[in-house]
Design a protein that fits this description.
The protein is an alpha/beta fold and 515 residues long. The protein contains 16 helices and 17 strands. The chain folds into 2 domains: 152 residues, Rossmann fold, CATH 3.40.50.720; 231 residues, Dihydrodipicolinate Reductase, domain 2, CATH 3.30.360.10. The longest helix has 20 residues. Bound molecules: 6-O-phosphono-beta-D-glucopyranose.
Amino acid sequence: MKSISELEPTMLTIFGGDGDLTWRKLIPALYNLFVDGFLPEKFKILSVDMKDISQKDYNKRHYEGVNKFSRRGKADKKQWSKFEQHIVYVKADITNDKSYDDLNKIYNETDKEWDEDASRIFYMAVSPHFIKEIASHLGKAGIAGNCDKHRIVVEKPFGHDLKSAQDLNNVLQGIFSENQIYRIDHYLGKETVQNILAFRFANALFEPVWNRNFIEQIQINVSEQVGVENRASYYEHAGAVRDMIQNHILQLICLIGMEPPVDLGADNVRDKKLEVLHAIRRFSEDKVYKNVVRGQYGKGWIKGDEVKAYHDEEKVGKESLTETFAAARFYIDNWRWQGVPIYVRTGKRLQEKTSYISIQFKEVPHKIFPSGVRQLLHPNLMVFSIQPQMGIRIHFQAKKTGLDMRLKPVDMIFNYSDSYRNDPPDAYETLLNDVMLGDATLFMRSDQIEESWRIIMPILDAWVNNPPQKFPNYQSGSWGPPEADALIAHDGFFWHNFTQPLEIVSEAMLGAKNK
Ligand code: BG6
């Protein structure tokens, strides 16, 4: 792993340079890296797009983007005017050979001007169907062949199914070596997600209880209040399982479930995560119906506003069978996790935007407290709050003050906002910085991508064979369809439904079995 002081002169070429991702995420992240001094002095952003706009208009539009989306709020004018000097807008047709010759000229001239061969990063901020084409052009033009200095960054979705993911891997690996390919899963760049590794492997306290002997169940919730927004043309072909479970949620399971790696070397970490993916139990078709629930939102209310049903959204057909919600019960079949259910739930237009992982521990083996006191015995819980609240909470029993022995659950809370003064970087800042440093630890390797698809394919196949009978099946503003409650209630548990995971737990949040 390299350090920031070792950043080399870099040319970052963004294909889709005036697209939504660049506007909302990439330029704001690069601006923040610049302000924090995390960009090399010799740095150029080549924003490649088809649009006929001047450099001035491009800069103006992206200045507004930074004002709108940067975690710092409005851009500092002086900083921005220094930063924008690093941006070059290149109008080009990415399907045409000549565009790559033109880019090559810029690379060569810049190398000459800087008097050294700069690193080249090719960022694919384009629709997935362009990736193969751009990669092939890069290969043909011979401008991406240096294994140490040239990298390609590929956004999700990585394939639409196992076969298309394998095809894309084959094409990319025919042009680049695996260590040049950075497949992004932006969840891995989130501070709180990276902190799972620190929490588990930088503390001696928790690892001894991190297994089936002490843990009863795990819940992963990634719920959103937004609907499909303006992304129906993508989402209609994706759905919640492809959009969230195949990538973000399986990666969270890996971080919670993996064995300790020998160090943080990219392949050591990724090998351990791959072992978890290998061990996740596969569903036969009949098991899919028992372990996975799908849903689609109907109309309802979000934050006091009435919102449309999914099938009334723009570019969505009335008969759409796309799931906007999925809940599942997974198992990791290995020595550490045998028999511990991992419940995952994700969806759009749910009651709260909140992502958390809660680890529920087993009850004490023998209860010494009188029965009236025991009624209040909650199981221990550990909650990783990923967003919007950021922190970790440990929920345990203590004696209530007073003359008699009565128990009261209390919480120990680590809250980022109380513990750290500076704002955490956005996930894209972390990930762009890692690409520049050549550190692939937080990126997906080809075998991880393919193994994730192998887990998900039986679900997708079973659902195609058996279309949903009654969509929509949950109201916007609810926690999803009743079948998702039934899935977990079947095992004697309840969804924790933490709206504010760092607040004190109320009894209602814990299942009847646990009271
Ligand atoms: C993206 C999905 O990967 O993650 C979106 O395509 C989803 O549908 C988004 O809204 C959620 O990301 P975050 O960072 O807001 O939790």
